[in-house]
Amino acid sequence: MTLPHIDLLYSVSGLAVGFLVGLTGVGGGSLMTPILVLLFNVHPATAVGTDLLYAAATKSAGTLVHGLKGSVDWRVTLRLAAGSVPAATITLILLHRFGMDTPRAGHLIQSVLGAALLITAVALIFRPQLAAFASRHRHAPGEARTLFFTVLTGAVLGVLVSMTSVGAGAIGVTVLLLLYPALPTVRIVGSDVAHAVPLTLLAATLTLVGVRLVLA
Fold it and tell me: Where are the bilayer-spanning segments (predicted)?
């Protein structure tokens, strides 16, 4: 029985990304997808699908831990999923319909990836200030308004994550801090992690199936 060949550079990249994510808690998609595209010359759609599948596995473990600790607000998770799941499905159907393997689609994914990385960087840099602002203004907006903007946030994340695998953590948590100022940070993080599981699993499945059909 022969073992499959393993490129050590992939393993080293995974180790480095895992180490940084372990230190910071965010950035898996922000780091791994660009590495796959720029360093390993992987097609953008394949890189996104691969990273999404990996994220689905890791987020599942994180959800289990947060769930056992009671640090998941399932109401917030369901509201996010109500927007993200349909948005991700529509986005990937459109990408497959217009040709995911075309240079135009590759350039589009790379452009959206660049924008998502910039937004993620801004969200991470200014998160302490936003968290402080939210703690000073602990009166959440009206229930209907909160529901609307939570679903809208989920829809935006669905588009970004399905196209780039970036944004579910840094951007989602930052927006939730503003929408739910009375909710403890640990529950916001746990709710965002739990929401990422169905989103990344769905997006990974649709992306990789689409790529396989295209390359077949």
Answer: 76-95, 107-126, 147-180, 195-215
Q: List, for residues 75-112, the tens digit of each pLDDT value.
A: 999 999 999 999 999 988 888 777 666 677 777 877 88
Question: Taking Cα atoms as reference points, which of 149, 192, 184, 199 lies closest to residue 25?
Answer: 192
pLDDT tens per residue, range 7-23: 677 777 777 776 665 45
**CB-based contact 17:25 (threshold 8 Å):** no
- Looking at the structure of the chain, the number of domains it has is 1
Domain for residue 1, yes or no?
no
In terms of residue numbers, what domain contains 199?
8-215
What b/e string do you get for 161-190 counting C-beta neighbours within 10 Å, with b at 16 or more? bbbbbbbbbbbbbbbbbbbbbebeeebbbb
86 inside domain: yes
Residue with tokens 């991470």: 124
